[in-house]
């Protein structure tokens, strides 16, 4: 399904908006089991980034909950009802109050009985401009001795569509973590005129340290656009 979506996505050209220089703020959070504490910490870091001049601010993958498949349902929010979704409501309010664009990392999304790993994008007016559902779920194979086994697809459904969004900071393509391993996604964003591709991630320590920087550099080479995680 993802391959079909990418092919049809590339075929439709868009007029590329102009882009000027801007500062990016990347927030690295220590996530706890208390959702309210995670929201408070994220708000504080977004505010700190804006105070330092950032106009585009990024959060990490699954910033409002521990990265544990058995907890995703408990922390999930409905993107169609932001007023009842505390994580999304905070992002909307702080984007509007600070006049910044926020790539909201990702949180668990609940929709029609399914869970998704989804990245919201809020504009400086507080509007939800886009939502990307992680296309390539991370399922570890048989772990090495002493390592943790993880299978995201046990609880999460895969997204089916690439996401590109025009913002005050330019045209941005969105991927989430494991999406970075698949060059077709980045190449499709480049074909659509993306100035920047953002991959909020929460890589594990077993493979992340070895692969993450290499994959960032590789996506820059094959997409001819900037990559940010």
UniProtKB/TrEMBL annotation:
<dbReference type="InterPro" id="IPR003010">
    <property type="entry name" value="C-N_Hydrolase"/>
</dbReference>
<dbReference type="GO" id="GO:0016810">
    <property type="term" value="F:hydrolase activity, acting on carbon-nitrogen (but not peptide) bonds"/>
</dbReference>
<protein>
    <submittedName>
        <fullName>Carbon-nitrogen hydrolase family protein</fullName>
    </submittedName>
</protein>
<dbReference type="Pfam" id="PF00795">
    <property type="entry name" value="CN_hydrolase"/>
</dbReference>
<dbReference type="InterPro" id="IPR036526">
    <property type="entry name" value="C-N_Hydrolase_sf"/>
</dbReference>
<feature type="domain" description="CN hydrolase">
    <location>
        <begin position="22"/>
        <end position="229"/>
    </location>
</feature>
């Amino acid at each position: 399904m993802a391959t079909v979506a990418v092919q049809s996505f590339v075929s439709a050209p868009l007029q590329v908006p102009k882009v000027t220089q801007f500062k990016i703020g990347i927030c690295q959070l220590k996530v706890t089991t208390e959702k309210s504490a995670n929201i408070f910490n994220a708000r504080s870091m977004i505010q700190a980034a804006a105070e330092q001049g950032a106009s585009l601010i990024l959060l990490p993958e699954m910033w409002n909950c521990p990265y544990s498949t058995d907890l995703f349902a408990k922390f999930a929010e409905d993107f169609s009802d932001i007023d009842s979704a505390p994580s999304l409501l905070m992002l909307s309010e702080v984007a509007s109050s600070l006049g910044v664009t926020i790539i909201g990392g990702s949180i668990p999304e609940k929709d029609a009985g399914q869970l998704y790993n989804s990245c919201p994008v809020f504009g400086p007016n507080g509007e939800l401009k886009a939502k990307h559902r992680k296309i390539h779920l991370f399922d570890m194979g048989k772990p090495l001795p002493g390592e943790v086994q993880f299978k995201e697809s046990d609880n999460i459904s895969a997204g089916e569509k690439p996401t590109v969004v025009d913002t005050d900071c330019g045209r941005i393509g969105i991927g989430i973590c494991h999406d970075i391993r698949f060059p077709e996604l980045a190449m499709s964003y480049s074909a659509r005129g993306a100035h920047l591709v953002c991959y909020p991630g929460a890589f594990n320590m077993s493979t992340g340290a070895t692969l993450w920087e290499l994959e960032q550099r590789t996506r820059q080479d094959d997409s001819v656009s900037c990559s940010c995680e």
